[in-house]
Amino acid sequence: xxxxxxxxxxxxxxxxxxxxxxxxxxxxxxxxxxxxxxxxxxxxxxxxxxxxxxxxxxxxxxxxxxxxxxxxxxxxxxxxxxxxxxxxxxxxxxxxxxxxxxxxxxxxxxxxxxxxxxxxxxxxxxxxxxxxxxxxxxxxxxxxxxxxxxxxxxxxxxxxxxxxxxxxxxxxxxxxxxxxxxxxxxxxxxxxxxxxxxxxxxxxxxxxxxxxxxxxxxxxxxxxxxxxxxxxxxxxxxxxxxxxxxxxxxxxxxxxxxxxxxxxxxxxxxxxxxxxxxxxxxxxxxxxxxxxxxxxxxxxxxxxxxxxxxxxxxxxxxxxxxxxxxxxxxxxxxxxxxxxxxxxxxxxxxxxxxxxxxxxxxxxxxxxxxxxxxxxxxxxxxxxxxxxxxxxxxxxxxxxxxxxxxxxxxxxxxxxxxxxxxxxxxxxxxxxxxxxxxxxxxxxxxxxxxxxxxxxxxxxxxxxxxxxxxxxxxxxxxxxxxxxxxxxxxxxxxxxxxxxxxxx
Length: 504
Description:
The longest helix has 25 residues, at 205-229. The N and C termini lie far apart (45 Å). The strands form 4 sheets. This protein has a two-stranded parallel ribbon with strand order 1-3. With 504 residues, it is mainly α. The chain contains 18 helices and 8 strands.
């Protein structure tokens, strides 16, 4: 039995990627010639236990600054990142996959930003996801709690006589917590908004789907990526952005993510670099300002209201997205109406992630331990070896520490090598990428995004997948822009997408 198997599944093929300089499949390796880093399992378990923060005696009030918050990343990007991950790693053959490869019988092996997690297999194969017109998607019950969004809706759910009411959606993983499930609903509503705008011109489903997809790709490229890896790194990978030309005039600089036939999913990305978001999870969130309390992200106590998914949550839990993304409404810095920041990208995970509920994980409930052991099983190279291969200065052992990036904790964080001598000059890649981001810390107000190793891996994979997709807007229409009425001050990002969604 696969000890890493979770309730929402293990991606087919990920656990058996050969270490070969010639192999290229749906999953592959960016750094094929680097040796795997070998660690004792007990050392990794010890590291995991230190990476999970102790439970806080009391949560920081909204009226007081929380030193663990990241001043440069809003909380919504944590779950947008999760949503994107589920899109990239979705397995079944969807309508878009069939459109791209009509002869595919099982699955289309190249990961794409194509919203398979939203569309499933399309209106012909999964008509219960769609309205009778075959153009609009179906939504669930009405939600209350956000006066600014009277049309808020849940996902449609099954109706068993007993047990949880699970969402009927293209990818069941997008119901694993309340926030990502409502983000899924926002994308469904955005599809319906585009359908209403375009359907007057008699656009068919595939045309509407393509335009929705391009708006999503725009958000990924121009909102999510610069937020996570920094604008400077994005412009290094895509120099045309700084020169205000196109990818046809100024070629992208993909130094490490290359493929022979079609883009693949690198294990260094999926098993290490892209798991940076786990450190951004807050222990508690305010969903809207009408609820008297904030909700904890996970809890094993059924009597404590929490955001665990795969169930029908209270209907007054409609998310006020102005508490998660910047809509330009100049909210206060403190108090219940503020934008909640994500937690810092550092080598610390909040306590609830050390004991995940059974609906999320089985056998190994610690997310840190799962990540570290999976990296070992997958034969990932050390963070130091990857840095050397990329021509980036290696972080010395003295500066590789484990714990929170706060003024209170940074001086007493334990050195990695003090956990075990087995980590001398050799750190697990996932941990190293978090610790690399943490090197930017100066004081509690320091903005933190991914560093040169983590940022380059994430940025190159995202850009490479877009460039490798012959149906992306970068390939089909590099001068394309979002629908003008959807833009706000010449900007289209996640906030603007949600604003359009709320019109439905």
